[in-house]
Backbone:
């Protein structure tokens, strides 16, 4: 199971894992005691900013080699509306906020 939220969501995830399952979190280190009690494993996955990698992604996107599914584009003035939509869940694709 992949946990991208942490907190209460992570806590509710342990009971649904099969024995021997694994919870990987990008938000917070999984609690060892909860993992042990669930008969599962917990792992933390962190990333780091890498300018070279971001440049390669940008070039792939600009060339059309890399495509994304965008749900909507919001002007910066409507960033709060984009956040509210994101927090509501069930968005298919990326919500984008214009930089300029």
Residues:
């Amino acid at each position: 199971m992949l946990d991208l939220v942490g907190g209460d969501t992570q806590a509710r995830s342990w009971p649904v894992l099969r024995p021997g399952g694994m919870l990987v979190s990008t938000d917070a280190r999984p609690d060892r005691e909860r993992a042990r009690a669930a008969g599962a494993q917990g792992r933390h996955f962190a990333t780091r900013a890498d300018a070279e990698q971001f440049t390669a992604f940008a070039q792939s996107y600009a060339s059309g080699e890399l495509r994304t599914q965008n749900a909507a584009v919001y002007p910066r003035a409507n960033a709060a509306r984009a956040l509210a939509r994101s927090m509501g869940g069930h968005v298919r694709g990326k919500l984008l906020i214009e930089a300029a």
Remarks:
- Strands lie at 2-3, 22-25, 41-44, 70-74, 94-97.
- The first helix runs from residue 7 to 13.
